[in-house]
Design brief:
Residues 245-458 form the Histidine kinase domain. The chain is of the alpha+beta class and 466 residues long. It has 3 domains: 1-203, no CATH class; 208-303, Signal transduction histidine kinase, dimerisation/phosphotransfer (DHp) domain (Helix Hairpins); 305-455, Histidine kinase-like ATPase, C-terminal domain (Heat Shock Protein 90). The protein has 8 helices and 12 strands. It has helices at residues 3-11, 17-84, 151-201, 217-270, 275-303, 315-332, 351-367, 424-434; strands at 92-96, 102-105, 115-120, 130-137, 143-149, 311-314, 339-341, 346-349, 375-382, 385-392, 438-443, 448-455. A 5-stranded antiparallel β-sheet has the order 2-1-5-4-3. Helix 4 (217-270) runs antiparallel to helix 5 (275-303) and helix 6 runs parallel beside helix 7 (351-367). Residues 5-12 and 458-466 have low confidence and may be disordered.
Length: 466
């Protein structure tokens, strides 16, 4: 293997987020392990040294009291007794008079001083070892030295150090293994997401990113992407449906217009073109233009462009203007048209679009109810919302069709024998979504009740209501 290839294998994991995450995990695990082991080492050695110092100091105080009660002779006898009972020399004793002559003990004088010091033992089982000693000045210039060999403490430190090295090596291996496993787990999940997105790009819009029930960051990301894909799939389905509906709804007026233009062409050959044929052709063209105008208006609303022109709107006054404009139509048909509008209800929105939505609802009620049937319009404050409703006494809409009729070009009159384009309620729904309102269709027993609920506390998801 060439050096460049080997370096490539070493650097490759660092180039991926999963590899970097694995290396970071390994490094942090190693550092944590070393910190714990180092703390254990320091705490253990410090504790043992402090325990040895406490034992030496306690015995020194006992011997000093012996000297105070019986003098140097009594102290020398006490030390010789301790030495005789401890042939292994686990404790070091030395008693010097003021001329630094040895009175008792089991260690060579050397150059002892007062305070804590390190001694090198020259006899007994611990010859050559170091000892921790404490020198105490006695009255009259005598010096007492007590010490304990540090061989056991040094062996303990060496044992702990070996354990730390072994544990450190194990920690390194485990941290590397954990890092590799973590990196592979991240890589597998990223690969699954990439495969799902690749399938979507190839046209499989029903494909979704894999998500687990535990709900970590990857699952939250997958959920957000899946929700976006679901909306995209629904939008494309609506687009396909609208495309088919446009072809279906425009085919009839265009076919009529072609027939009339053919008739006009035949009349032009004889010099006689009936005015009625031309007028009806113009009417067909106007109907097609109205359909396209409605589609463009709905597309503009759904894009959110009109949100930039939102302002404070007196919805009560705007609806009152709509009612005043449509009241003559209701009167000509002899229908009851009761209205109950609470004055002064205001919200942020587009006045023109709000009025158009209510116009569509009221005209739909007029169109789909008998001439004498009642149509009621209300607007009131209900808790934290403004609710506008249009109710009628017609045949209503079956519950199974209430969601479907809100889509463009959907008409319950499949024969298209009644006037209309099937875009009125679709525009109302677009206006409601733009303003963050809730649009509901409910049974009025008999008839239909359409409600628009505008929240007025806080902001809606579209930011339109205050």
């Amino acid at each position: 293997m060439r050096l460049s290839d080997a370096m490539g294998l070493l650097v490759a994991p660092i180039r991926t987020s999963a590899g970097r995450a694995g290396l970071l995990h390994a490094g942090l695990t190693l550092l944590a392990s070393l910190a714990i082991l180092g703390t254990v080492y320091v705490v253990t050695t410090v504790y043992e040294r402090r325990a040895a110092q406490d034992g030496i100091a306690t015995e020194a105080r006992s011997l000093v009291m012996t000297e105070a009660e019986g003098g140097l002779a009594a102290l020398a006898r006490q030390i010789n007794s301790h030495v005789a009972s401890d042939p292994a020399g686990s404790t070091v004793y030395l008693l010097l008079d003021r001329d630094r002559r040895v009175l008792a003990g089991n260690v060579a004088p050397g150059a002892p001083t007062t305070g804590w010091q390190t001694l090198v033992l020259d006899r007994g089982e611990h010859a050559g070892d170091t000892a921790l000693g404490l020198g105490v000045a006695l009255p009259g210039g005598a010096l007492l030295l007590i010490g304990r060999p540090q061989g056991q403490l040094e062996e303990l430190e060496e044992t702990i150090m070996r354990a730390i090295l072994i544990a450190g090596a194990v920690a390194v291996l485990l941290s590397i293994l954990g890092g590799v496993l973590l990196g592979r787990s991240v890589q597998r999940r990223a690969a699954g997401m990439n495969a799902a997105l690749a399938a979507v790009a190839e046209g499989d819009l029903a494909r979704r990113l894999p998500a687990r029930a535990r709900g970590d960051e990857f699952d939250a990301l997958a959920g957000a992407v899946n929700a976006t894909l679901a909306r995209l799939q629904a939008a494309l389905a609506r687009l396909n449906q609208v495309t088919g509906d446009i072809a279906h709804d425009l085919r009839t007026p265009l076919a009529r217009m072609r027939q009339r233009l053919e008739r006009a062409a035949r009349g032009a050959a004889t010099g006689q073109v009936p005015r009625e044929v031309v007028d009806r052709a113009v009417g067909d063209i106007d109907e097609v233009l109205r359909v396209f105008a409605a589609l463009l208006r709905i597309a503009q609303i759904e894009s959110g462009e009109r949100r930039a022109s939102f302002a404070e709107v007196d919805l009560s006054a705007a609806l009152a203007d709509v009612v005043d404009a449509l009241a003559p139509t209701a009167e000509d048909a002899g229908r009851s048209f009761p209205v109950a509008i609470t004055p002064g209800l205001r919200l942020r929105g587009d006045r023109e679009l709000l009025q158009q939505a209510f116009v569509n609802l009221i005209e739909n009620a007029f169109r789909h109810t008998p001439a004498q049937a009642e149509v009621r319009v209300t607007l009131a404050r209900e808790g934290d919302a403004i609710v506008g409703s249009v109710t009628d006494r017609g045949v209503g809409i079956p519950p199974a069709d209430r969601e479907r009729v809100l889509r463009p070009f959907v008409r319950l009159d499949e024969s298209r024998s009644t006037p209309g384009t099937g875009l009125g309620l679709a525009l109302v729904r677009a206006v409601a979504d733009l303003h963050g309102a809730e649009l509901t269709l409910a049974n009025h027993a008999p008839g239909l009740s359409v409600r628009l609920r505008f929240p007025v506390q806080g902001r809606s998801r579209s930011g339109g209501i205050t």
